[in-house]
Amino acid sequence: MPRKLAATSESQLQKFHTEYRGMMELDSHADTCTLGANVRAIAYTEMVCSVLPYHPGYQAQSDVPVVQAVTTYTDQETGESYILVINQALYMGDTLPASLISPFQLQSHGIIVDDCPKHLSPNPSHTSHLIYIPKVDLRIPLQLQGVVSCFPTHFPSNYELNHYPWIELTSDNEWDPNDKRFQEWEERLDHILDVLDEEFFPHQIDCTICELWAIQSSFSFLQFICNKLASAVKVSATKSSPQRHSESLRDEISQIFGVGLDTATRTLNATTQLAIRNSIHPIHKRFRTEVAQLRYPRLGGLHRKFHTDTFFASQPSLSRCTMGQMYINDIDFTKFYPMKLKSEAPDTLISFMQDIGIPSDLHSDDAKELSEGCMGELLCKFWIRGSQSEPYSPWQVRAELCIREVKKAV
Predict the structure, then answer these.
(1) Which of 395, 309, 391, 400 is nearest to 85 (CA)?
(2) Cα–Cα dist 344/168, whole Å
(3) pTM of the predicted protein model
(4) For the chain, domain boundaries
(5) Pairing of strands 166-168, 81-91
(6) How far apart are CA 21 and CA 44, in angstroms?
């Protein structure tokens, strides 16, 4: 959907940053997040909506823009600050002192919202009454103002936008709170629960899997049914072993491939769960081995996602290089490779994988040499998820900020 970037003067930003500190209030009656003075709109869509009040006797407010907006949240325990991104939201500006958050819109994006206060919870704990973001393992504790659950944020400054990590609370896909699929998914899940409570028959399982497949694009119910099926299996006795694979599996591998037990053991130890290929029918020939994934270590945890951008210098280096490729992750681990041509960017990725490892994600701007051609083939071959920033949004690429600091030092 086309978007128009929002422009705000420095004086306005300073005024907003010092004055507009407000609450993000959970409102289950709000079908769409409605944002106020403590939120900064950074992009406007071409859509506008009419906002209806709680009583039909009041007049509706028309032409309310649908925006992408951000606000700054600071964790009171760790002191860390984050930029919370709210997509597909209604923007009321400074006419609304607090922002209203739709729990359903957050939950549809995979965010866990527990709006039950601790003193009313059947099992209260430190993980009660909060918003949990699984992708980044962030918990936002909720406060009570009267009967309203909320948490404090403030209008973000340019410095905060450029230096704090961004976390999405809602999806950037077009949001329709009146989508009839929500009701259909709820009814299908009711039927699935009825089937799971009964004795399993083959046709029921097939029907249940089909229904799960129909709604799996929005809800992760496959894990749920797998747990239910596993709990229905009766095991008479169990035996734990420190070995990764059982001896029976090793013997089976040895017989199938006609190799010794040592070779079968090394084969099992070298087998990973990335890019597994399956065969429905009996296998009559061997799969061709792809060793690219085993050639270099695969980065995980905080090192899994890297940002990259091209650095340009006005003066050549001693090796006659006038540019270079910068790699940096979210914990500021940085690697730099000098280049003479922009087309050498794929070579730097190969060097990076040889020196450091294979990143799981690689984020860059929309430069073609960083997403297409040889670079695109490398991303596909090594199972690296590539992503690009929006046009004219340098703050979305962490490597841009790193290059800026390097130029200051030089």
Answers:
(1) 395
(2) 33
(3) 0.51
(4) 3-168, 182-228, 247-290, 301-409
(5) parallel
(6) 22
